[in-house]
Amino acid sequence: MAQSNPPFMSGVPELLLLRALSRGEMYGYELVKAVRVATGNTISLGEGVVYPALYGLERRGALKARRKTVNGRSRVYYTITPKGLRRLDELAQEWERISSGVSAALEDAGHA
Amino acid sequence: MRRPTFESLSQELLEAGIAPKFADRLRRELEDHYRDLEREALANERSAIAAAVEARRRLGTDEMIAHECLSRPELKSWVYRSRCVVLCLRGLCLIYLGLRAVVRGAAGCRAPLARFAAAGAAAAAVVAALLLVLELSISADRAPVPVRTLGHVQRVAAVEPPSSGGGALRGQPGAETPVGELAADVPPRREIDMPAIDRPRLSKPDVPRVAMRVRPVVALEIELRPGALPKMQAADGDLLPIVKIPPRFPVVAARRGIEGYVLIEYTVTRTGSVSDVVVVESSSEVFEQPALDAVSKFKYKPRVVDGRAVPVRGVRTRMRFVLEA
Fold first, then answer.
1. Model's pTM, two decimal places?
2. What residues in B contact A52, CB-CB < 8 Å?
């Protein structure tokens, strides 16, 4: 059974974070940059507030975190889990449904 | 320039019930992220100071990050998430220990009166323990309000209004304040002395040093817009500032000898904290972030009307950044 969504806009950052992580393991700074680039600079996540969102996803089992040392720098890298991939599908479908509904409503308003 | 450490943010989150695992990791990740942002800004040919300022700005304020953490109950520690269970267990332990002591005492008594007294004491102990559990359960739902010490809020004095115009300003007596009219019950204007700031050393300073030793002073004026306050009854309480921490004087401005002001407007909530903080006007952008950071930490005794705390909108504070020789 799909999880219920609170007011949907609060799910958009979650959708974008999971989508970016579905492409590979990333750390926080890298992730924010990836979201900005993927959305064509349309959506820029607050850099510091991305971490509470990541911790929330981790707590719910959608992500795993591990500390890795790369080029002498130790950072926490996040990886999406199978549960996270299912959550990503749910959010993507929900987004498709809502954006279709909004587009239809705007088209109707245009013709009215 | 000294890098921020986010220790105080981490400590606040721990006190508010965030799991230690997340509070500690957040501190380290924010420090790493800050370093990456600083490096990015330096790669874009920013100066060291500008890179530091941009990195801090892009990361967001401590208040924003704390708010995001605290709005996610899943990040709280097990003890905070299961408060009622923990409190009930504590209550049951208290009841058990009390009863055991009383029963042991009563078992040794032969007189009926003594046994009656022991039974009464046991009943009183059970009732007291249950009331304690009830009280703790009610207070467990209230978020703790962090109280900051007033250690660096010092002596206050009258403040000259600033002259009009932007850029470097020096207050001139008799100049009009470019703000709305004051409410009748606004407390007298006060200025707060700040200790001299510890200027960080830069390996490659790109701004001239200030020739003489100056003491940055930040003055605070509190104003309320007309109509911001509802009518009061005789037993009601007025809005009263409890914690007003002056902002830090920006190093960039201090080194360049720049003075200025920021007029900020905000809402004091029912719990006495501050929300909806906006800059109404300022003489220079460099003062805005320190002013916003400081105002976000203000604490008030909330306004009470008809026995209920009410939010107060339209509270304004003017912060003047002055260099005094």
1. 0.47
2. 26, 65, 68-69, 71-72, 75
Q: Which H or E run contains B320?
A: strand B312-324
Residues 6 or more apart from B82 whose CB is under 8 A from it?
Answer: none
Cβ of residue A46 closer than 8 Å to a chain B Cβ: yes
What backbone phi and psi angles, to 5 degrees, belong to B239?
A: -65, 130
pLDDT in tens, B81-138: 666 666 777 777 777 777 777 777 666 666 778 777 877 877 887 788 778 777 776 6
Residue whose entry in the numeric block shows the structure tokens 């006495």: B272
Mean pLDDT (chain A) is 83
Angle subtended by helix axes B83-107 and B112-140, to nearest 10? 170
Mutate to test the interface with B, among A49, A57, A68, A75 (most CBs of B within 10 A): A49
Tell me, yes or no, if B81 comes closer than 8 A to chain A by beta carbon.
Answer: no
ipTM at complex level: 0.83
Do residues B186 and B240 make contact, with C-beta atoms less than 8 angstroms apart?
Answer: no
Alpha-carbon Rg of chain B, whole angstroms? 27
DSSP A36-92: HHHTTTS----TTTHHHHHHHHHHTTSEEEEEEEETTEEEEEEEE-HHHHHHHHHHH
Q: Kindly report, residue by residue over B207-216, the tens digit of the pLDDT.
A: 444 344 445 5
Q: How far is CA B96 from CA B105, B125, B136, B156, in A?
A: 14, 10, 18, 55
**Environment class of residue A17 by beta-carbon count within 10 Å: exposed (0-12), middle (13-18) or buried (19+)?**
buried
Residues contacting residue B8 through CB under 8 Å, at least 6 positions apart? B62
Chain B residues lying within 8 Å of A28, measured CB to CB: 29, 32-33
C-alpha torsion angle, residues B87, B92, B93, B96 (rounded to 10): 160
pLDDT in tens, B207-261: 444 344 445 555 555 554 544 444 444 446 778 888 887 888 888 888 888 889 9
The total number of residues written for chain B in this structure: 325
